[in-house]
Amino acid sequence: MDLVLWRHADAEPGEPDEKRRLTAKGKKQARRAAEWLHASLPNSARILVSPAVRAQQTAACLAELSHRKVKTVAALAPGASADEILQIVDWPNASGCIVVVGHQPALGWVASRLLANRELPWSIKKAGIWWLQARTGAEPSETSLRAVVNSDLL
């Protein structure tokens, strides 16, 4: 199983939090990250996204490029826990590749749980991508890191 953690791009400040939109910078970040993902993901990859506007806009960049469908999952909203995210994606039992477009600190907690076997305050940059892979036939705690991509480097 491959799990791609993609943090939403740069968003405007304000309230309510769920309605915050991407800034002009965020739109560029999301597009660059989406272009990289489009070239790297298998066609069968599933995209699960938080209902927050900034996450929806980030995921839409990939959907527009690839014509992949995006599924909104309410439980991926800001405030989600690592346990909730891992349960949603059925880690490590699901097959194929799943992209989760979400938020900090939850995405960092997921990455640290899978790579360091405990939740640590790891930070994924805005529009950043961490691609994790469960080793086939290995214990669930055996995870490899395929890629870390920051949109400012694309």
How many beta strands in the DSSP annotation?
6
Nearest-integer average pLDDT: 94
Counting DSSP H or I runs of 4 or more residues, the number of helices is 4
Classify the secondary structure makeup into a structural class: alpha/beta
Helical content band:
25-40%
Task: Describe what you observe in this structure.
The structure is a single chain. With 154 residues, this protein is α/β, with parallel strands linked by helices. Helix content is 32%, strand content 21%. The chain is built from 4 helices and 6 strands; from the N terminus they run E-H-E-H-E-H-E-H-E-E. The chain has helices at 24-40, 53-66, 82-89, 106-116, and strands spanning 2-7, 46-49, 70-72, 97-102, 129-134, 143-149. Strands 3-2-4-1-5-6 form a 6-stranded mixed sheet, sandwiched between helices. Strand 2 (46-49), helix 2 and strand 3 (70-72) form a beta-alpha-beta unit. Helix 3 (82-89) packs across helix 4. It is globular. It starts with a strand and ends in a 5-residue tail after the last strand. 38% of the residues are buried.
List the helices and strands and how they pair.
Elements: E1 2-7, H1 24-40, E2 46-49, H2 53-66, E3 70-72, H3 82-89, E4 97-102, H4 106-116, E5 129-134, E6 143-149
Parallel strand pairs: 1-4, 2-3, 2-4
Antiparallel strand pairs: 1-5, 5-6
Explain briefly what this protein structure is.
The protein has 154 residues and is an alpha/beta fold. The protein has helices spanning 24-40, 53-66, 82-89, 106-116, and strands at 2-7, 46-49, 70-72, 97-102, 129-134, 143-149.
